[in-house]
Amino acid sequence: MAATIIDGKKIAETIQQELAEEIKQLQAEHHLTPGLAVVLVGENPASKVYVRNKNKACHDIGIYSEQHNLPQEASEQELLALIQQLNHDDKIHGILVQLPLPDHIDEHKVINTILPEKDVDGFHPVNIGKLMIGEKGFRPCTPFGVQKMLSYSGVPIDGAHVVVVGRSNIVGKPIANMLLQKQPDANATVTVCHSRTKDLAAITRQADILIAAIGQPEMITAEMVSENAVVIDVGVNRIEDPASKTGYRLVGDVKFDEVSQKCKAISPVPGGVGPMTITMLLYNTVESAKQSLER
Amino acid sequence: MAATIIDGKKIAETIQQELAEEIKQLQAEHHLTPGLAVVLVGENPASKVYVRNKNKACHDIGIYSEQHNLPQEASEQELLALIQQLNHDDKIHGILVQLPLPDHIDEHKVINTILPEKDVDGFHPVNIGKLMIGEKGFRPCTPFGVQKMLSYSGVPIDGAHVVVVGRSNIVGKPIANMLLQKQPDANATVTVCHSRTKDLAAITRQADILIAAIGQPEMITAEMVSENAVVIDVGVNRIEDPASKTGYRLVGDVKFDEVSQKCKAISPVPGGVGPMTITMLLYNTVESAKQSLER
Questions:
Q1: Which residues share a beta bridge with A192?
Q2: Where does the record locate the signal sequence feature (chains A, B) (predicted)?
């Protein structure tokens, strides 16, 4: 029997519609429009595409967005000054500095300069600390998207055994910490596996929810999952494909064809976690605007 | 066959001797004496004992320590002003505010006011955030003590399956995050279990290293551990004992008598994690003094 498909694109659309409604309400009741500033340093082509997509997504649901382009050779000082200015700008509720930054700029210093209250990427140590101890704060967008996907799909998390494969700072560690909190959409027993894990398959087979975030194409095979598992594939890997026009195609960390024939539910790549990430950036920006009303 | 006893008291003494040597060297080479300020608000008898013990431990190894007593009715403002003063005091490298605080004082605000560079308790969100993503920073003393106990006992952590039972902010969550980092004395596969975990025994039996931090007297029984397990008992529970002079005795979260007959190694209560906690406070204070040389 084939698995249910967890359609990230559709869930993302639903959440974006909800956000658009909230924004209308904020404008009507409080004359407040959520605002996002996106900062891009240099000319990295991939980064330019990401930034453009983020601006477009803002526009589509009614978030005010502005883009700040600094040249590749901009000094750290200039970038920090720009962030300080945005920190004090009342129409800006979220600040996103597109990574990676040029080598001469200290990424840590940049992230630490963003006010935690405007850190809609959830990368400031204060927000990471709050995540770990279960306090209110901005959650990083990809793991937050995974959590929302599970809850919008009605997957029970409370009491489930979640196995996370991968321990990156932007996915594996935060999703593990988020799902083990004594909170709604959480309260799971959580195991984190990685390159040093012995007998990985024996552990992944115990998962009620398996989250693959290793960055290795199609590493998770059918024999590594149980029939009852819900599988969320966070991987985005390019593999060569001569049959494709571009010469490559995108695959996840999960061998979709065989795993989807065995497990209970699965998110595809593309069309799974991807659309959720940008949506949670919008969500955090709207949330930040709402919180600004309380200050 | 009875388990090897992991003697926290002895390991703590070893580390304290090493610290005493380091302090002598800091004094000889840099005319620098590490300094700890301990702040106590009110008259809680248990807190007074803890504070006295911390001061004595400092004195024993050559750390300068000062105690600040504020009355129970001291305002939050007064406490914050004292912390600011200590933040700017060059002879103070560590600031510890003894918890709990009176109800009229916001604990979060107090912890957030301590400079992260002097937060030797490791409770500031910035230090917690750094812990989660594996960056340098102060680690909270109890989980740090557990990690050091394991490494000083020669227990292999790299590649081991660590099962943590309990998800408190001061023990369960930080120890889980510390041991899963790609770092020395870490690199473990980590599972966090808690009150909502289904079939707890099936999971704890998989542990190469079992860390009990639930706060429930003698909850971990022999049938929950494997023969190869190293068991670290973080629990400190008072249970009634008419045979004792005080009318009670201290027990851990592990049923020591039966578990120690089965597993490979175990830390007792008392004499296990307890002496390590205060030792890591001293360790962090010395570390902070050393870091002050680099600023």
A1: A164, B190
A2: none
- List, in sequence order, the alpha helices (H) in A66-199: 76-87, 107-113, 125-132, 141-152, 172-180
The answer to whether residue A54 is catalytic is yes
Q: Identical fold at B31-115 and B139-274?
A: yes
B159 contacts in A (CB within 8 Å)? 196-198
Q: Chain A interface, mutation test: which of B157, B180, B210, most A Cβ atoms within 10 Å?
A: B180
Per-residue pLDDT of chain B (295 residues; tens, 9 = 90+): 689 999 999 999 999 999 999 999 999 999 999 999 999 999 999 999 999 999 999 999 999 999 999 999 999 999 999 999 999 999 999 999 999 999 999 999 999 999 999 999 999 999 999 999 999 999 999 999 999 999 999 999 999 999 999 999 999 999 999 999 999 999 999 999 999 999 999 999 999 999 999 999 999 999 999 999 999 999 999 999 999 999 999 999 999 999 999 999 999 999 999 999 999 999 999 999 999 999 8
Q: Which of A163, A196, A198, A203 is best to mutate for the B interface (most B CBs within 10 A)?
A: A196
Q: According to CATH, what is the number of the domain A141-275?
A: 3.40.50.720
B54 is catalytic: yes
Give the pLDDT of residue B295.
85
Closest chain A residue by Cα to residue B136: A125
Handedness of CA A71, A75, A76, A82 (dihedral sign): negative
Query: What's the CATH number for A30-138?
Result: 3.40.50.10860
Inter-residue contact A163 to A210 (CB < 8 Å): yes
Reply yes or no on domain B31-115 having CATH 3.40.50.10860.
yes
Active site annotation includes B206: no
Interface list for chain A against chain B, based on CB atoms closer than 8 Å? 124-135, 158-159, 161, 167, 169, 173-174, 177, 180-182, 187-194, 196-198, 203
Residue A120 has pLDDT above 70, yes or no: yes
Say if residue A100 is preceded by a cis peptide, omega within 30 of 0: yes
CATH number (3.40.1280.10, 3.40.50.970, 3.40.50.720, 1.10.3720.10) of B139-274 reads 3.40.50.720
**Separation CA B204–CA B173 (nearest Å):** 17
Chain A residues whose CB is inside 8 A of the B132 CB are: 128-129, 131-132, 169, 173-174, 177
Report CB contact under 8 Å: B198, A189: yes
Beta carbons of B178 and B204 less than 8 angstroms apart: no
Rounded to an integer, the average pLDDT of A192-203 is: 97
**Is-contact B203 B197, C-beta < 8 A?**
yes
Domain ranges for chain B: 31-115, 139-274
Amino acid letter, A281:
L
Q: Could you tell me which of A68, A61, A69 has the C-alpha nearest to residue A34?
A: A61
